[in-house]
């Protein structure tokens, strides 16, 4: 883009931007032209689009960033769309402790009240599951959660939930799905100058009753039982700490030992390179605390506490082992099935096939959906439980129709305490499941790109010429989900590969699974074979197929 065009776009935006700090940011970039041309071109490459995940992007001035002007337009479009659908009732707004979150929440409330819509703000920075709960509890028309979940500190986001009136029974309190996202985006595009968007009163701040209601309901997810359990915990600089502690206390557990350096919300996330429990090193301080405290279980939430990760004592003294999302997902499902919780147990097409095997053996209804909780909660009639491998678990869909790291944490603590009272552990339960169903080893291969066309090209090439064999076994099935979804699945007698573009990052992802039966009761040998098949066989084969080797 020519420098003069960039200057014109930036000056037009600057004149309409309501945030003095953002205006200063753009003025500084304009003063540095032409040196700042690349940065300005990126900021004005296009608007931050509203999709099924709402908005998410870097905090920066300009249309391709998260800022007060973009949020004002998004709020005006959303509220206009709700009115056009005939939606009645309040809009509930929650926010985390990231940079800008409270300002974005309050601005959304002002846009809502100016349009005649009641706006109810959660009383303080709180977990995303509390917002999802409040939408159902207060029969809201919709909810907005200002959060970027586990993204880097320079990001923020804007997630939208619908109430029962517009979301229907399965989507009451769930994230939006098409065509709502396209409708909201179209409404945003009709918003004129930001300076002309009316702003009203700041809305009504709810009191702590709504938080206590969530805590009491979350604690009631687990039945009475043994509570002798030492837990180490980290909210990872996020907003889950106080709510989790209150939930554990209400459920009868002792207060967890908390990583002091990560206990309070901090939008800079100073102790971790990336605030995601899945990332290497993110749980190091937690595991060190667990060792010092003699804990039975280590639990981490991501910063908005909708995800849950755990680690258990390892086979060597003093060692700890982080469980995969699939391992925790099946442990929770097995626990709920053993407790007799009725209904359908669901997961996604990229998660382990172990849940299907478990449900088949136990005579329990099973469902499989596309990735994302917006699909899990809508994809199964009579949902009892759902999970996805990316550390998301819904153990109480009538309470929170989304992933919920708080109820997942108290449920896995309930299982761990029950097993401890029997002289056993979570590791023992995993051994039992592997011995019965075979070792299900999962993994991933990711291809990060700068040029998104490489993803399209690679998917087209794999579709045209998929691998004929994997691990020396013939590929017996190639399932292509186009045009409904850009997903390709390959299956052999003992392996499965699901290839799809990421929905949130510039990545192409391959989800891998190897299943090794346990013969003659030799679980260690089966696990060794599964590790070798994954690390020395399937992963390099798929890397080569994607052009990474």
From TrEMBL:
GO terms for biological process: carbohydrate metabolic process; purine ribonucleoside salvage. Gene3D superfamilies: Alpha-D-Glucose-1,6-Bisphosphate, subunit A, domain 3, Alpha-D-phosphohexomutase, C-terminal domain. InterPro entries: A-D-PHexomutase_a/b/a-I, A-D-PHexomutase_a/b/a-I/II/III, A-D-PHexomutase_a/b/a-II, A-D-PHexomutase_a/b/a-III, A-D-PHexomutase_C, A-D-PHexomutase_C_sf, A-D-PHexomutase_CS, Alpha-D-phosphohexomutase_SF. Keywords: Isomerase, Magnesium, Metal-binding, Phosphoprotein. Its cofactor is Mg(2+). It comes from the Bacteria. The keyword Phosphoprotein applies. It holds the Pfam family PGM_PMM_III. GO terms for molecular function: magnesium ion binding; phosphopentomutase activity. Residues 49-188, 213-311, 325-433 form the Alpha-D-phosphohexomutase alpha/beta/alpha domain. Belongs to the phosphohexose mutase family. This is Phosphomannomutase. The keyword Isomerase applies. Residues 475-525 form the Alpha-D-phosphohexomutase C-terminal domain. Signal peptide: none annotated.
């Amino acid at each position: 883009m020519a420098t003069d065009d960039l200057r014109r776009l930036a000056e037009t935006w600057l004149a309409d931007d309501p945030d003095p700090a953002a205006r200063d940011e753009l003025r500084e970039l304009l003063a540095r032209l032409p040196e700042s041309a690349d940065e300005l071109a990126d900021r004005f490459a296009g608007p931050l689009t509203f999709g099924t995940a709402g908005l998410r992007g870097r905090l920066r001035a300009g249309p391709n960033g998260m800022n007060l002007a973009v949020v004002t337009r998004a709020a005006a479009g959303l509220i206009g769309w709700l009115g056009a659908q005939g939606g009645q009732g309040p809009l509930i707004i929650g926010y985390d402790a990231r940079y800008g979150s409270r300002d974005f929440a309050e601005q959304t409330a002002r846009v809502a009240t100016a349009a005649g819509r009641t706006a109810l703000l959660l009383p303080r920075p709180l977990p995303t599951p509390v917002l999802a709960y409040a939408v159902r509890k207060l029969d809201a028309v919709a909810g907005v959660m200002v959060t970027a979940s586990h993204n880097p500190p320079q990001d923020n986001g804007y997630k939208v939930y619908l109430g029962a009136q517009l979301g229907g029974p399965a989507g009451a309190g769930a994230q939006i799905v098409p065509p709502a996202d396209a409708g909201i985006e179209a409404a945003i595009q009709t918003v004129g100058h930001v300076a002309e968007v009316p702003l009203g009163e700041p809305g009504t701040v709810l009191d702590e009753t709504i938080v206590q209601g969530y805590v009491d309901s979350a604690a009631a997810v687990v039945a009475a039982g043994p509570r002798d359990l030492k837990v180490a915990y980290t909210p990872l600089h996020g907003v889950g700490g106080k709510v989790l502690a209150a939930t554990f206390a209400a459920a009868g557990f002792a207060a967890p030992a908390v990583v002091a350096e990560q206990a309070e919300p901090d939008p800079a996330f100073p102790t971790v390179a990336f605030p995601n429990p899945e990332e290497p090193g993110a749980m190091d301080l937690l595991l060190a605390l667990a060792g010092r405290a003699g804990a039975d279980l280590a639990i981490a939430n991501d910063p908005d506490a909708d995800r849950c990760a755990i680690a258990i004592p390892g086979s060597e003294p003093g060692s700890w082992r982080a469980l995969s999302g699939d391992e925790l997902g099946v442990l929770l499902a097995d626990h709920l099935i053993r407790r007799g919780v009725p209904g359908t147990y669901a997961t996604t097409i990229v998660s382990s096939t172990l849940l299907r095997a478990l449900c088949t053996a136990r005579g329990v209804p099973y469902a499989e959906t596309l990735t994302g909780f917006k699909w899990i909660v809508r994809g199964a009639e009579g949902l009892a439980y759902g999970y996805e491998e990316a550390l998301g678990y819904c153990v109480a869909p009538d309470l929170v129709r989304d992933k919920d790291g708080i109820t997942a944490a108290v449920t896995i603590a309930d299982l761990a305490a029950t097993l401890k009272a029997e002289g056993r552990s979570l590791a023992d339960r995993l051994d039992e499941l592997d011995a019965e169903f075979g070792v299900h080893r999962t993994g991933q291969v990711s291809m990060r790109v700068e040029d998104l066309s490489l993803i399209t090209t690679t998917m087209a090439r794999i579709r045209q010429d998929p691998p004929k064999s994997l691990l020396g076994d013939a590929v017996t099935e190639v399932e292509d989900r186009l045009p409904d979804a850009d997903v390709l699945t390959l299956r052999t007698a003992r392996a499965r590969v699901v290839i799809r573009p990421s929905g949130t990052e510039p990545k192409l992802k391959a989800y891998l699974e190897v299943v090794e039966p346990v013969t003659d009761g030799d679980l260690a040998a089966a696990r060794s074979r599964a590790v070798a098949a994954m690390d020395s066989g399937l992963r390099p084969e798929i890397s080569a197929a994607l052009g990474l080797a």
